[in-house]
Backbone:
């Protein structure tokens, strides 16, 4: 399982062209769903109107060089390391899920398009990275779901409470979990291989097809919002917030760690 391309093995029963078409359809669903989300919620219009209004109230001019520096800081600090999360447990869970998802998706695409059949030997590192990425998603995702869910930990809701915002994490966990089980059963010729392949496809389709109703598109919006926040701080507009006080407020109880978001 760790060195076998599960999609190449699947080509014995499903044409590689069908698998490749499925991946292309998922990409189209993500792009179309994100554009629909932007149009339906008018988030892009609000974002640019708000940015333009904030810049008009700025007291400093942000040049192209400083803008490039702010963009790099956003990519390195806010995106690559998720520095916006103050809770270290939440931050680690997010990073595991994010990087695991990227590894999982990229290796899936490479194996499906580059090595679709056993006739083209798959480098052993690709299936290994695919499994590693899926395990990272499981580690971060299940840690978040069962230990540090915001609404359960901070607001006292029961752990079985489900809302629409949970659609992304649940479908993501379903995709990687069923995918790992399917790959294992396929490697050992298990009797339930077809069942878990079907569950894997259903969960994956929900994951990429539910973008307008899930938090999937946030991964595209958050970097832009983080950049806007840095620019607002640099040009003095501060997103219409008051200037920081000379002495910061001391909130919370220093004797215990916060358990909320």
Residues:
């Amino acid at each position: 399982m760790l060195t076998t391309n599960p999609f190449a093995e699947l080509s014995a029963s499903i044409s590689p062209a069908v698998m490749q078409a499925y991946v292309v359809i998922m990409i189209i669903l993500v792009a179309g769903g994100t554009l629909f989300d932007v149009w339906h919620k008018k988030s892009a219009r609000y974002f640019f109107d708000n940015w333009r209004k904030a810049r008009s109230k700025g007291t400093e001019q942000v040049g192209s060089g400083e803008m490039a520096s702010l963009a790099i800081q956003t990519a390195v600090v806010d995106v690559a390391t998720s520095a916006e999360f103050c809770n270290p447990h939440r931050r680690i869970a997010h990073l595991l899920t994010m990087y695991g998802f990227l590894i999982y998706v990229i290796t899936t695409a490479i194996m499906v398009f580059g090595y679709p059949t056993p006739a083209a030997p798959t480098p052993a590192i690709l299936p290994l990275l695919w499994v590693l990425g899926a395990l990272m998603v499981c580690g971060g995702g299940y840690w978040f779901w069962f230990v540090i869910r915001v609404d359960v930990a901070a607001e006292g809701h029961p752990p079985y409470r489900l809302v629409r915002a949970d659609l992304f994490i649940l479908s993501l966990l379903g995709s990687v979990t069923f995918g790992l089980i399917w790959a294992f059963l396929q490697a050992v010729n298990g009797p339930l291989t077809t069942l878990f392949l079907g569950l894997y496809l259903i969960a994956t389709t929900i994951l990429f097809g539910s973008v307008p109703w899930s938090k999937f598109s946030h991964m595209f919006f958050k970097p832009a919002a983080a950049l806007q926040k840095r620019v607002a701080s640099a040009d003095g507009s501060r997103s219409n917030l008051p200037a920081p006080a000379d002495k910061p407020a001391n909130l919370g109880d220093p004797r215990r760690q916060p358990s909320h978001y």
Q: What stands out?
A: The chain has a mean pLDDT of 83. Residues 88-114 form the longest helix (27 residues).
